[in-house]
Automatic annotation (TrEMBL):
Names of required cofactors: FAD
Protein's UniProt name: FAD-binding PCMH-type domain-containing protein
Origin superkingdom: Eukaryota
PANTHER family, A to Z: OS08G0158400 PROTEIN
């Protein structure tokens, strides 16, 4: 496996936009034990003399490090509140042996397991639960082994500052290269995977059905990803980025209307993301809509500008706003930072701003008409400034795959993916009257969009999980309202069949995990 070591953020970009013994008495003197967790701790104790090292990997609530370790990767700060249910034990493995031991002991002593790769779960499901649970935190397993000659890399699940690759690829995963290379899961070649019995499997030994399921069907429903083998994709030495804002007064509505036709069909080397905000005009009390167009082109501006002049002259991209930078620098730009920001920030987990929001997703298959856009703009202007729409065009390589190639089904015919979000900035929690009002506004926006988004089913992205869709799982009728939206009927039913074979007792479960009936 081992060829060479490179920065985790570099591989992430290429692929996606493309890591015990002494006696129990002696052990307990080094590891703080919460009443009720003694059996688990006794079970997982090391069979060697390295007890001190072990004490730095296992934490219970009486340990001073417990809360800081739990909090550090809670990427959505609305869950940072005393009422959020926390783990009984946190295990931070450095190797597969401790993962295997934690799985065995959790099963033996009646704990569920939650798997936290990067902590970017939109509903906090990787680090909270209403039942006693052990949290496997993969922050220490983030090595990357690169085979340059064969353009592949083995990447452990803890890689990346926020979106850990374990869950990211398990749900599909998209980035600025999706129109050229598809989803992250489309570029998975192999896996090291632990099943419910603790067996470590690869693509060959697990069989084609399970390998299909974990690439977009929610890998944590089936077991534990220990490492992905990924296809590395080529990117040019320089890419071109631009950022351009348009308001209603500058013709934003007509420009966005055309964007829906152009962005999904233009050259696959060009990806133009948009962000839509409502804001006040200067110091007045009148509001407008501002649309930010963020473009990245896999080539030079000398090639980009003629392309846009031909296909999308209304956007008005000029040479002076186009910047040619290294591909990895574009990640910094799309984080909203200057291109001159040192790329070392990509390896600093604490440098990236955390979320504090509630989100929903949709897919658009028919361009939204002008009158529909105006309704949406009016709705946004009724918001208190907490709302954001982030829109990514599809098409290109995404349309080359069938919707059943992997469980991720949002393929041919999808024009746009919409992420709708409200933040809770300025609020002490997500349950204040103002926060609840924002959530109700988001749900009313969701209702307003109904005529303009996909139907039968109304599609949603499983990595933008949304418990408003439902959590029922005792039978298909209960599970289908959310399962078919994430994966469509045929894929969801296939995932259920595979789950029944590989985890028949439904040990790997959480809200909206693949059910067993």
């Amino acid at each position: 496996m081992k060829k060479s070591q490179i920065s985790s953020s570099v591989v992430f970009l290429l692929v996606l936009c493309l890591s015990f013994c002494n006696s129990w008495a002696n052990l307990s003197s080094l590891v703080d034990v919460t009443p009720g967790t003694e059996n688990f701790m006794s079970c997982i104790q090391p069979k060697s003399n390295n007890v001190t090292s072990f004490s730095q990997l296992i934490f219970t609530p009486v340990n001073a490090s417990f809360i800081p370790i739990w909090q550090v990767a809670v990427q959505n700060t609305r869950f940072l509140k005393p009422s959020t249910p926390k783990p009984s034990i946190i295990v931070t493995p450095v190797d597969e042996t401790l993962v295997q031991k934690a799985l065995f002991c959790a099963k033996k002593h009646g704990y569920e397991i939650r798997i936290r790769s990067g902590g970017h779960d939109y509903e906090g499901l990787s680090y909270t639960a209403d039942v006693p649970f052990v949290m496997l935190d993969f922050t220490n397993m983030r090595s990357i082994d690169v085979d340059v000659a064969n353009r592949t890399a083995w990447v452990q699940p803890g890689v990346c500052p926020t979106v850990g690759v374990g869950g990211y690829m398990g749900g599909g995963g998209y980035g600025n290269l999706l129109r050229k290379y598809g989803t992250a899961a489309d570029n998975v070649l192999d896996v090291r995977f632990m099943d419910v019995n603790g067996n470590i499997l690869d693509r060959k030994s697990m069989g084609k059905d399970l390998f299909w399921a974990i690439r977009g069907g929610g890998a944590s429903s089936f077991g534990i990803v220990l490492a992905w083998k990924l296809r590395l994709v080529p990117v040019p030495e320089k890419v071109t980025v631009f950022i351009l804002n348009k308001t209603l007064e500058e013709g934003a509505t007509k420009i966005f209307h055309k964007y829906q036709y152009v962005a999904p069909t233009i050259d696959r080397n060009l990806h133009i993301r948009t962000q839509v905000f409502a804001e006040y005009i200067g110091n007045t009390t009148k509001k407008t809509i501002r649309i930010m167009f963020e473009g990245i082109y896999q080539g030079t501006r000398d090639t980009l500008l003629p392309l846009l002049d031909e296909k999308f002259p209304e956007l008005g991209v000029r040479r002076e706003i186009c910047e040619e930078i290294r591909s990895i620098q574009s990640t910094v730009v799309f984080w909203g930072l200057p291109s001159s920001t040192p790329i070392e920030i990509l390896t600093n987990r604490s440098a990236i701003a955390k979320l504090n929001n509630k989100s929903k997703s949709d897919y658009v298959r028919t361009p939204i008409p002008i009158r529909g856009l105006r309704k949406i703009w009016r709705k946004l202007m009724q918001n208190d400034g907490s709302a954001l729409l982030m829109i990514n065009p599809f098409g290109g390589r995404m349309a080359d795959y069938s919707e059943s190639a992997i469980p991720y089904p949002h393929r041919a015919g999808v024009l746009l993916q919409i992420l709708k979000t409200v933040n809770f900035n300025g609020q002490t929690s997500d349950t204040t009257p103002t926060s609840l009002k924002r959530i109700m506004w988001l749900r009313s926006l969701d209702e307003l969009l109904t005529p303009y988004v996909s139907k039968n089913p109304r599609e949603a992205y499983s990595n933008y999980n949304d418990l408003d869709l439902g959590v029922g799982s005792s039978n298909y009728e209960e599970a289908s309202p959310w399962g078919e939206r994430y994966w469509k009927r045929d894929n969801f039913q296939k995932l259920i069949r595979i789950k029944a074979k590989v985890d028949p007792n439904n040990f790997f479960r959480r809200p909206q995990s693949i059910p067993v009936f």
